[in-house]
Amino acid sequence: MASSLTGQVDPLSQYQNLFPKTGKPRTIGNLDSFIISALSPAGAVVFTNPFDTAKVRLQLQIKPNKKDVGNVNNNQIVYKNSLDTIQKIYKNEGLKGLQKGLIPAILRESSKNFFRIGMYDPIMGIIHDSKTGSAPAWKRLVAGSMCGVMGAFSCNPFELVKTRLQSASAGKITVGHQHNYTGTWHALKCIVRDEGFFKGLYRGSVLSMCRSVVGSGTNLANNDERIFNAQSRLARFENFRYRVWARISHVVRTRYYNQPYDSNSKGKLYSSGFDAITKIAKAEGPTAFYKGLCLYYFLGILRRQLNEYYGYLDRKDSFLFFDANNDGALNLSECENLLNGVFFNDKEKVI
User: Which of 84, 105, 112, 229 holds its CA 20 to 30 A away from the CA of 128?
Assistant: First the structure.
């Protein structure tokens, strides 16, 4: 059994009698990958959502004395930095304020990573035969990019709702256009009613998918635990080169999602992603694209725990198979049968 963490082979995996039910060690399959790919970021978002809320507020804030492009409090800086943002939100809105948009954030992470992470191994299995050795960098980049596009499209409605709910505030700490939604379901209904299904819910999806081609393509290729060679180091270098674009597009997408729209479903502030980049850069300078980034995943923890659980089941099956008298212990005769049956394949002596 190849270890997902080290790439080494477990020498016991060749002895089928140690795995009487399955004939081989249990491993994480495609269905398992889909499930943990959805659960791990959904769990992480509970802890990271306050930082994400602060990030959205910072990205919506526009520097004073510039042309008004949607900021309610255009004559003052409301938030100074991430820590100041969190403190002010908690002071004025409490813990509930910091966890605004939590439900769509969980739905976003689950739907996004169900495809973005969960589909990586199945796609790699289609485009590359693992028996021929490690996949080349371009195949891993292609698989990662395809996963990113699918994930970005699937989560776009929840990303849109999350951004608008997290921007909701009142009084002196208000930034950005206020949509006044009461919750996730109300936001979805209002968007479909006022802006249309595809035009509304999938607004900005092209921008998100383009961003994911870069981000997911390089990140997933880097995190392919089966590859430890010079090509993965090259991919990490490429990821560094694209990181600037990923940050820029994230800020632009937040502004684009949150702007108000007219009756013809046209943005009142930005007509396109490129228009948003131009206006933000002109009004605020390049530093506007580097505000409040925070992201954590629990994927590795769940994968390790699931691998350990499967190992426990394999050991339990093997013990019960050789414990002929079911007394919860292996006596001398049972141990002899285990050694002969497993290592010498003497089937006549296996009970």
Answer: 112
